[in-house]
Amino acid sequence: AHAADAAATTLGFTEVPVGYTTADAVAPGYSADVLIRWGDKVLADAPAFDPAAQTADGQRRQFGYNNDFIGYLPLPAGSDASDHGLLVVNHEYTSADMMFAGVTADTQLNEAQVAVEIAAHGQSVIEVKRSNGKWAVVEGSRYARRIDTGTTPMVLTGPAAGHDRLKTRDDATGTQVIGTINNCAGGVTPWGTVLVAEENFHGYFAGTPTGAEAANHKRYGITDEPWYQWHRFDARFNIDANPTEPNRFGWIVEIDPYDPASMPKKRTALGRMKHEAANVHVGDDGTVVVYMGDDERFEYLYRFIASAKLDRANPATARDILDDGRLSVAKFSDDGALEWLPLDWGQGPLTPANGFNSAADVLIETRRAADLLGATRMDRPEDVEPNPVTGKVYVMLTNNNKRTADQLDAANPRAKNETGQVIELTAPDGDHTASRFTWDMFLMAGKPEDGAVYGAGTTEAGQLYCPDNCAFDNKGRLWITTDQGSAAGKRQIADGVYATDTTGAGRAVPRHFYRVPTGAEMCGPCFTPDNTTLFVAVQHPGEDKGSSFDTPSTRWPDFKDGVPPRPSVVAITKADGGVIGG
Ligand code: FEO
Ligand code: CA
Ligand code: CA
Ligand code: CA
């Protein structure tokens, strides 16, 4: 079997066996070292982590909760340094029952606990350095920064900025927002910034949608049963008092980590949805194209083309390039064609007759605009990323257990889809601005009994569930990370990292490289430029049925009594210092 495996792939590692254990596991010959954990110091004056005595003031200076996206930016800027750089890390969400003693899903949190939760959202920017083969956080770095949902000012830019629907009682300009929430994945731009996605923003807002914004808020899932209790202490999160505040979330936010004083910018030209991520392709002529997924069952795949070209010799000129351009949504045909439908205000159904009185309305209600154009309803589009070697674009579709047998199409071909699929898009002659692409099913995830389809030679361990995020190495190989949710515990198969060739005999033959501890999902795959390090984010370890701060299913990575499991960034390196995956 080993000889056959070796023949079918360029990936030169022995797979990690399937498992569901309290510790993580990596392929033999590699080490997986925890770099930074929830509560560790980000700013020099941060207090030491004490799970029994958390404060918002401390959390605002410590590494936040539930690390998701990781972006690596070399130091010095513009170099390809692979032993020294900045990491920008998203802190997507918080889980009070895993963070605080004595808390269950039904507990009324107190104001201090909610303040910790708010401070544990946002981003961390850390400086990291490798010496003698091991990565460490540089203490006292001038780049170190916490971007926090409760206090960090941001600006709305682009066509919707300043529109009446973005104005609130506290902000008559419609351009000034405090913080960003539920930042899932993202992307690093070729001009040295990071794009972070605002995903499930609806879960933070309470109230009954009524009045002018009612249909809008309902389309994005706001109800009087929010996921969080922030509205009990901050009226900003109560739509009865502040009906337009949710319109200031659901955007792509651009952050310049090289300038710690810079203000993050919410780029309204990229549309408003439950953004999973945003990844940039630059054409030979400098054309900037951004691919994005809206992660919810039956939502859409999007593309943005910037109006201006990138001057590669002068990347700083791209500072505001994402403020002007054209947004489109994908319509898949069963014959393998894909059409990009432009969301142009004033064209087709996107007119005042349907309540779209300006380009801003189209951007604020991107989903409704895409509905009217007849875009293809997908099985939860997560990461969408162009392969820098081949130029093909890969779409991670994680699952959709609500799809019924009468709602199938070739791109979403399974009813009650619990396992997901990966679609490959091809731009004609590499022209990513073309209005028509073609597409192929790259793989159908799951086991054979789920209707899975892989390349020949895929092992039992390599059969993955629920593709979520991804990265490419310098050989154009696709590294997929998975998120099964609570199904991981039921299956007793942990989430992890799976690598596959995208061409040749090893095409669509995933190989299992790393797995997370119980209850966790795998996020944030990110290579250094030389591919000798793969950073990954272990998110929500211990998030199992019946697990809590007091009785966690794992105490990874500390394994100390009284210390709960801690979401952490892990640096994976090869023992001989070589390229990950060989
Ligand atoms: Fe935050 Fe789409 O997962
Ligand atoms: Ca995700
Ligand atoms: Ca990615
Ligand atoms: Ca996920």
Automatic annotation (TrEMBL):
<dbReference type="InterPro" id="IPR006311">
    <property type="entry name" value="TAT_signal"/>
</dbReference>
<keyword id="KW-0472">Membrane</keyword>
<protein>
    <submittedName>
        <fullName>dTDP-glucose 4,6-dehydratase</fullName>
    </submittedName>
</protein>
<dbReference type="InterPro" id="IPR011042">
    <property type="entry name" value="6-blade_b-propeller_TolB-like"/>
</dbReference>
<keyword id="KW-0812">Transmembrane</keyword>
<dbReference type="Pfam" id="PF05787">
    <property type="entry name" value="PhoX"/>
</dbReference>
<keyword id="KW-1133">Transmembrane helix</keyword>
<dbReference type="InterPro" id="IPR008557">
    <property type="entry name" value="PhoX"/>
</dbReference>
<feature type="region of interest" description="Disordered">
    <location>
        <begin position="542"/>
        <end position="565"/>
    </location>
</feature>
